[in-house]
Amino acid sequence: MVRKLPLPDESLSPVVETLDSLGSLVRSQRARGQLRIDDAADLLGVSKDLLSRLENGRSVSLDSLMKVLDGLGLKMLVVPKGDALLVEEQLAERAANSTDKGSA
Predict the structure, then answer these.
(1) Is the dihedral of CA 76, 32, 45, 56 positive or negative?
(2) Does any domain span residue 74?
(3) 94 falls in which pLDDT band (50, 70, 90)?
(4) Terminus-to-terminus CA distance in the chain, angstroms?
(5) Element housing 98 (H / E)
(6) How far apart are CA 25 and CA 68, in angstroms?
(7) In a 10 Å sphere around its CB, with 0-12 CB exposed, 13-18 middle and 19+ buried, how is residue 7 labelled?
(8) Backbone φ, ψ for residue 34 (5° rounding)
(9) Average pLDDT of the segment spanning 51-80
(10) Which pTM was predicted?
(11) What angle do CA 6, 99, 97 make, to 5 degrees?
(12) Which of 40, 48, 55, 86 is in Cβ range 3.0-4.6 Å of 23 for a Cys bridge?
């Protein structure tokens, strides 16, 4: 059975508060790379089961998480909760500015 690739979700916040939101970000990044889950797992050096668990909001080891994030070109940033909104606003502003420049 041929599986369809997920579509990237541009509406996702980069601020992760749950395993579900982390999984959604990972799945969206994989979709940006147009990678099926089995191909991504092979490239990342992890099992398909591990990648599936992560994308579905289930826990994985921290070293596996870091391996997946790095392999997909993502970086984890840990900030105090009080600063998260400021960081999210700055990222949204940056994204809006890059979109404006791209359409000019």
Answers:
(1) positive
(2) yes
(3) confident
(4) 43
(5) helix 81-103
(6) 12
(7) exposed
(8) 55, 45
(9) 96
(10) 0.83
(11) 130
(12) 55
Cβ contacts of residue 35 below 8 Å, gap of 6+? Answer: 5, 43
Q: At residue 8, does pLDDT exceed 80?
A: yes
Q: What is the mean pLDDT of residues 22-44?
A: 95
Residue 23: give the domain boundaries. Answer: 19-78
Joined together, the tokens standing for residue 93 give 């502003």
- Quote the Cα angle for 46-11-24, to 5°: 25
CATH number of the domain residue 67 falls in? 1.10.260.40
**Full DSSP string of 13-62:** -S---SHHHHHHHHHHHHHHTT--HHHHHHHHTS-HHHHHHHHTT----H
Residue 89 lies in a domain: no
- Give a yes or no: residue 7 inside a domain: no
Query: How many separate domains does the chain show?
Result: 1
